[in-house]
Amino acid sequence: MKKNVLIKGILVLILIASLVIGFTGCTVTFFLTTGTVYINVTGSWWYDLYMDSQKKYSNVTEGTYVLYNVPTGDYFFEAIDTAGWERGYDSVRQYIRAGVINYVYLNP
């Protein structure tokens, strides 16, 4: 008698678990709200890097620079030559997606 009750209990738990997975899916239930940005700069001088008019890096050369935990949204990225924007400038507006690596390319 106890064996039947135990088997029925396990079967009910399996049924409930199957229904929960079927209705909600097998996905992670948290929501990502930030992304990582890799800023790739090409050029032969020194630059200041900006995101939405806020300086993120100063006096950098050609290379890749990383910004972590950037909230999802549309941003304006700039690379400005340290000798003045007329000597080297590039900008791009880009939407940053959550949970992925976002690449931004600047060639001042």
Report how far the terminal alpha carbons are from each other. Answer: 80 Å
CATH topology of one domain: Immunoglobulin-like
CATH architecture of one domain: Sandwich
Oligomer type: single chain
CATH homologous superfamily name of one domain?
Answer: Immunoglobulins
Mean pLDDT: 87
SS class? alpha+beta
Which regions contain 5 or more consecutive residues with pLDDT less than 50? none
Number of helices: 1
- What is the number of E strands? 7
Approximate helicity band: 10-25%
**Biggest β-sheet description:** 4 strands, antiparallel
Proportion of residues in β-strands: over 45%
User: What is Rg?
Assistant: 25 Å
Give a description of the structure:
There is one protein chain. With 108 residues, this protein is α+β, with helices and mostly antiparallel strands. The protein has a domain at 34-106: Immunoglobulins (Immunoglobulin-like). Helix content is 21%, strand content 48%. The protein has one helix spanning 2-24, and strands spanning 34-41, 47-51, 54-60, 63-71, 73-81, 89-96, 101-106. It is rod-shaped. The termini are far apart. 14% of the residues are buried.
Question: Can you summarize this structure?
Answer:
The protein has 108 residues and is α+β, with helices and mostly antiparallel strands.
Give structural attributes.
3-stranded mixed β-sheet; 1 helix; Immunoglobulin-like; 108 residues; 4-stranded antiparallel β-sheet; rod-shaped; alpha+beta
